[in-house]
Amino acid sequence: MSRTITAILTFMGLLGLGLAGLSPFAGTPALAQDVSITGRSSNVEVTLRSGRTQVKPGETFYVALDQKIAPGWHTYWRNPGDSGEPTSISWTLPSAVSASAIKWPKPEAIPFGPLVNYGFSERVVLPVAITVPAAAKIGDLLKLGADVTWLECSDICIPGEAKVAIAVEIGASARDSGDAPLINQTISELPTAFSGSARLTDLGAGGLQLVVKGGEATREAYFFPYEVKIGALIDFAQPQKFVAGKDGLGLNLVKSPSFPADLKGPVGGVLVLGTGGGAKAYEIEADFEAAPAPISTIPTSASQVGIGLWLALAMAFAGGLILNLMPCVFPILSMKALGLIQASQHDATAARAHGLWYGGGVIMTFLALAATLIGLQTAGLAVGWGFQLQNPAIVMSLAILMVWIGFNLLGFFEFGSSLQNIGGGLSQSQGARGSFFTGILAVVVAAPCTAPFMGAALGFAATQPPAISLLVFASLGFGFALPFVALTFMPGLMAALPRPGPWMVRLREALAFPMFATAIWLIWVVSAQAGQAGVLASLIAILGAGLALWLARTWPNRTSKAAAIVVGVLSFLWAIQHVVNAPIPARSQSAAQTEAWSEARVGELQGQGKTVFVNFTADWCVTCKVNEVGVFADDRVKTALSGSKATYLVADWTNGDDAIA
What we know:
Layout: H1 3-20, E1 38-40, E2 44-50, E3 52-55, E4 60-69, E5 74-81, E6 88-92, E7 98-99, E8 108-112, E9 115-121, E10 123-131, E11 141-153, E12 157-170, E13 175-176, H2 180-188, E14 192-193, E15 197-202, E16 208-213, E17 221-225, E18 241-244, E19 249-253, E20 267-273, E21 280-289, H3 309-323, H4 330-344, H5 348-378, H6 392-409, H7 422-425, H8 429-446, H9 454-462, H10 466-488, H11 491-496, H12 502-510, H13 512-554, H14 558-581, E22 594-596, H15 599-607, E23 612-617, H16 622-632, H17 635-640, E24 647-652
Parallel strand pairs: 3-12, 14-21, 15-21, 22-24, 23-24
Antiparallel strand pairs: 1-2, 2-4, 3-13, 4-10, 5-9, 6-11, 7-10, 8-9, 11-12, 15-16, 16-19, 17-20, 18-19, 20-21
Helix pairs in contact: 3-9, 3-10, 5-8, 5-10, 6-13, 6-14, 9-10, 13-14
């Protein structure tokens, strides 16, 4: 699959050969009857063997390329897997004599760093059928020559090449050679045609499922696909999950990132059933069932999603109210509470304006999120609440913002006006801007949380026309903004607020630490989305942001401010590039009793009469993680969701996944 990797490794091998002064070619003595010619490279010895010393005119017989491979090295099957090149034979044959393609034995899966290759170690015999023309003359010598190329790999890859030849006499009768038992045994162990049926189903983002009917009973299976014309069929390095069915077996396969969108069936490959000496290999051709086309129309009837418009609006409003109690929002509301306390001692009208601007920022941001969701869904993408946190660049940006706010709360720098001047600035445009921005920030940091009632309301909104969806999101925003806005319009409650004092400075500084804790959590989310490279990029971006703040604060002139902007922007852009391009790390289940969700797996378990519990979760979802620690980790719950009672499936949406969406 990765020809670039192969090219690099091949170059390294050629460089090694040049430095060592080695030649991968062996000398070729003159052809003689019943003489095998052997070639050698650094780690592979190849011998051309014949099953006959004498053949009859019109007969088909077998020769074989025998590769003896040094310990720790391997050569490749017809589909080499993630990297590599298969052994190739270019024949030099007498007129009218023909040679078949290589009859490939079943390969083995060979881990190669983060990759998995398909190939052979220690020794492999590759048979080829040779057909002699009926007009061949008895007494002639049949000379067979072959230019053989291969790739031998261990920590590096070295190209190998040899010229090998053999001669066989044409006679009135056939006569076996001493190599006949080896070749015949190899042929008897080749993959045989499968007598049952096979079907390969494209599950979209859920991967592929191979279902085989008619094979012998087994609990172990492995599928080695043949190469497709463009791209690759499966992710070779991912495990193949065995599934036992009522009338056959199945394998759940992870689709290759280069899976061809226009793949047509049937799909061929070798299926190995069983392990060890009892394993049997079959050549299969699986009928291919493409993934269903995306749904272009969405039901708009409220009855189809179980609730009506008024109930959805009420649930959205209630969910917005409860969202204020979620841990994501607490530090932001605490900051606004400090401003409200200060404002209440000066001008009640200014305090109400403060609340209205905050509410406006909240509702506008909810509507903007709704409009973005509607636009992406119209474009055919499967997105939902919190979709923006599936992008590690956005998560990293939020982590930087939380660090900045933390430094601001500690007094390292000020966003325009100090805490002591908040009351006087509320009636000015600067105070209005600050309140409006705080409303936006409150919604952004609330995205990792989902309050009760929100799920059903947002599920309803996703099935409705844009106008109704916007109305539901507006109700959610109104519920979220109401407690704080209402407080500014209640003189009795405003009067009950504590009086300003030095305690406000201490509280403000204390609130910096929840911000830093939020930044740590966000970087942990990045680690799940982009691995160690993403974490390093995020920390470097935070370092750049801190340096920019220090430059701007230490030398408050235009030059230092320009330098601060350059440092901050460059470090941020560098980090964005590295986070976005970082490979997605492999996901592991949190407990032995869980397994990954797929629609196919749910259907299979339901077909067996089992109860299925699906936990849709994400690392950036605070509510989800609280549930996992406080509920699913409980021994009683584990017992209820394991064994014969139920099967617990986990649908991890930390990174975008259309099937889960």
